[in-house]
Write a structure and sequence with these properties.
With 199 residues, this protein is α/β, with parallel strands linked by helices. It has helices at residues 6-16, 23-35, 38-54, 71-74, 89-98, 125-133, 148-161, 186-194, and strands at 56-57, 64-65, 79-86, 103-107, 139-142, 167-170. The radius of gyration is 21 Å and the shape is globular. The chain contains 8 helices and 6 strands; from the N terminus they run H-H-H-E-E-H-E-H-E-H-E-H-E-H. Strands 4-3-5-6 form a 4-stranded parallel sheet.
Length: 199
């Protein structure tokens, strides 16, 4: 039995298709959109369509851009000799928030995941190899997540990059700042011990 008119049901269904949005959240969002003045609702719809039409992948690093090179690849201040490999454009944003990394990026748009039928050919690996093969890159930092798929992807890429004589490193993992040893799991403690450094 439908409680709402068909257009509202359709709007709820569209919101429910978004990641992390359940049925109740979808309803709240749909009712919020309906409560907006027509100009604001139109601006919201236009923003979605504009982003869908204009946002593409950077031809160099495969990060998101509004056409041409992304701002990071276009910046002469960034170190072209270092490439940080991430799985997703959101990871670029996370690393940029730290304001510590001054190199360039390469976005894979996923990780190797046989369970989800994602293989190396489904990722932006060839363009990474092409960049490294040009000879300007000195170090490639693997910044994929420390889960099974992220580790497998990092190891696969490290094997592919070895013949180029480039230094391949992995982000350090361990106890988070403000964390307590007693709450850390065994794998985290092992990584923290392996990645220790001199003070």
């Amino acid at each position: 039995m439908e409680y709402f008119p068909a257009p509202l049901e359709n709007l709820v269904e569209q919101f429910a298709r978004l990641p992390g949005i359940g049925g109740k959240s979808a309803q709240r969002l749909a009712f919020h959109v309906l409560s907006l003045p027509m100009e604001e609702a139109q601006a919201f719809a236009d923003a979605i369509l504009e982003a869908k039409k204009t946002v593409t992948c950077c031809p160099v690093c495969r990060n998101l851009t509004a056409g041409g090179l992304c701002p990071i690849c276009a910046s002469p201040k960034r170190d072209a000799g270092t490439i940080c490999v991430v799985a997703d454009p959101r990871d670029v944003a996370a690393l940029e928030r730290s304001r510590e990394y001054a190199g360039r990026y390469h976005v894979l748009h996923g990780v190797i995941s046989p369970m989800n039928h994602v293989g190396p050919d489904d990722l932006e690996i060839k363009s990474l190899i092409d960049r490294v093969a040009q000879g300007d890159v000195k170090e490639v930092i693997m910044a994929t997540n420390p889960d099974t798929e992220g580790e497998a992807t990092a190891m696969y890429l490290a094997r592919l990059l070895k013949p180029f004589g480039v230094r391949v490193t992995r982000l350090a993992y361990g106890i988070p700042v403000g964390g307590h040893l007693e709450f850390a799991d065994d794998a985290t403690l092992m990584r923290a011990l392996e990645g220790r450094r001199e003070l």
